[in-house]
TrEMBL record:
<protein>
    <recommendedName>
        <fullName>glucan endo-1,3-beta-D-glucosidase</fullName>
        <ecNumber>3.2.1.39</ecNumber>
    </recommendedName>
</protein>
<feature type="region of interest" description="Disordered">
    <location>
        <begin position="359"/>
        <end position="386"/>
    </location>
</feature>
<comment type="similarity">
    <text>Belongs to the glycosyl hydrolase 17 family.</text>
</comment>
<dbReference type="Pfam" id="PF00332">
    <property type="entry name" value="Glyco_hydro_17"/>
</dbReference>
<keyword id="KW-0732">Signal</keyword>
<dbReference type="InterPro" id="IPR044965">
    <property type="entry name" value="Glyco_hydro_17_plant"/>
</dbReference>
<keyword id="KW-0378">Hydrolase</keyword>
<dbReference type="GO" id="GO:0005886">
    <property type="term" value="C:plasma membrane"/>
</dbReference>
<dbReference type="GO" id="GO:0042973">
    <property type="term" value="F:glucan endo-1,3-beta-D-glucosidase activity"/>
</dbReference>
<dbReference type="InterPro" id="IPR017853">
    <property type="entry name" value="GH"/>
</dbReference>
<dbReference type="GO" id="GO:0005975">
    <property type="term" value="P:carbohydrate metabolic process"/>
</dbReference>
<dbReference type="InterPro" id="IPR000490">
    <property type="entry name" value="Glyco_hydro_17"/>
</dbReference>
<keyword id="KW-0326">Glycosidase</keyword>
<feature type="signal peptide">
    <location>
        <begin position="1"/>
        <end position="29"/>
    </location>
</feature>
Length: 426
């Protein structure tokens, strides 16, 4: 074989191998995150929760603590975790030694079997109106990050904190989004930390609260992702047909206005209650079904917001279970996608666990957050559109698995043909 023939033959082999590698690449499945709160005395043990999470196709879970029972149960499951440090621990984290001990005990001890990828330090601290708490936030975040660096974990575990959308002083129109003036200094410090460490900016956004506060100005279809004429941002001329996207882009605009245009934004909480008190307008099972099913459908399309159309939405639905011990109005105890026995709270497009799980309370006494507040835009002017009683259908997990297997079989068949062709040329 001549030198030129050898080069052509090697090129042919490398090209064929590249095609084989492409066909062997994993089949991508739609993913969504879910918040796993545990303020309840009737929840199933974490071992029973693993198949439940997988039944809904979720590959990301956010905890409000670092419950060892949960982290052990999800070992080798492939599910990615955000673990959290409650607000009550922020003062302790000002001590570098305590931060180091926390990271070793609650993160390093479970890696790599359990995929802990992020630590949320505090929840909605800047809108808590507690100056001592907000003063502890940055020292706590910095010391937790330094502890990760000391453990050589900073490249695989990030550090962040979750904010209420009430951190915005202006949210309408989305292009006018701006942070509260009294919080800009604190927000800037947090954003500088994100830039330095490469961590995401987390927002808890609940269109439900905006609707409940002013149902005459905020049409229900607009907050439930139902067909409606939506609104036009007068500055950007961008069209918004749902409030969540408008809230997210208001955050993007607020970030850009203070010099952080390229900051990664994730929605760490959003959801809708299936039950509420008499004065909690809109807290119904049908509305919760529409909101969460439509939300999951939109996330599955991997489309961004009007202002960031090429950025996939990273959303964590609140919450996995109804939590019967949460204080506050009835709605606070009825955000769950599932009942404690593992059956869906309402039709979701996935069946949950066929055999109901035993309602054994999981351990863990750390404070866990519920839902965040949401600021109501100063003036919403969506046009009334036609209402739909249905909701966007989503693919069940069983259907997704069947599709993946069929795709894999087809790919393997093609690979076999390519291999035969390859060896015939040797």
């Amino acid at each position: 074989m001549s030198t030129m023939e050898s080069i052509i033959h090697i090129h042919y082999l490398s090209s064929t191998l590249l095609i084989i590698l492409v066909f062997l690449s994993p089949v991508m499945a739609t993913s969504i995150g879910v918040n796993y709160g545990q303020i309840a005395d009737n929840l199933p043990p974490p071992e029973k929760v693993v198949p439940l999470v997988k039944s809904m196709g979720a590959t990301r879970v956010k905890l409000y603590d670092a419950d060892p029972h949960v982290l052990k149960a999800f070992a080798n499951s492939g599910v990615e975790f955000i673990v959290s440090l409650g607000n009550e621990y922020l003062s302790d984290m000002k001590d570098p030694a305590k931060a180091q001990a926390w990271v070793k005990t609650n993160v390093q001890a479970y890696l790599p079997a359990t995929k802990i990828t992020c630590i949320a330090v505090g929840n909605e601290v800047l809108t808590s109106n507690d100056t001592s708490l907000s003063g502890n936030l940055m020292p706590a975040m910095e010391n937790v990050y330094a502890a990760l660096v000391n453990c050589n974990l900073d490249k695989q575990v990030s550090v962040t904190t979750a904010h209420s959308v009430a951190i915005l002083g202006t949210s309408y129109p989305p292009s006018a989004g701006a942070f509260r003036k009294d919080l800009v200094t604190c927000v800037t410090q947090v954003l500088d930390f994100h830039c330095k460490t490469g961590s995401p900016f987390l927002i808890n956004a609940y269109p439900y609260f905006a609707y409940q506060a002013d149902p005459k100005q905020v049409p229900l279809d607009f907050v439930l992702f139902q067909p409606n004429q939506g609104i036009i941002d007068p500055v950007t001329n961008l069209h918004y047909d749902n409030m969540l996207y408008a809230q997210i882009d208001a955050v993007h605009s607020a970030l850009a206005s203070i010099g952080y245009k390229n900051m990664c934004v994730q929605i760490s909480e959003t959801g809708w209650p299936s039950k509420g008190d008499a004065n909690e307008l809109g807290a119904t099972m049908d509305n919760a079904r529409k909101y969460n099913c439509n939300l999951i459908k939109l996330v599955s399309q991997k489309k961004g917001t009007p202002l960031r159309p090429n950025s996939n939405l990273n959303v964590y639905v609140f919450a996995l279970f109804n939590e019967n011990l949460k204080p506050g109005p009835t709605s606070e105890r009825n955000y769950g996608l599932f009942k404690p026995d593992g059956t869906p709270s309402y039709p979701l497009g996935f069946s949950g666990i066929t055999n109901t799980v035993s309602a054994n309370s999981s351990s863990g006494s750390s404070s866990r957050s519920g839902s965040g507040g949401s600021s109501t835009p100063t003036s919403w002017s969506p046009q009334d559109g036609s209402s739909s009683s249905g909701y966007m259908s989503i693919t069940s997990d069983s259907g997704r698995v069947l599709f993946c297997w069929k795709s894999l079989i087809l790919r393997l068949h093609i690979v076999c043909c390519l291999m035969s062709l390859l060896f015939s040329q040797l």
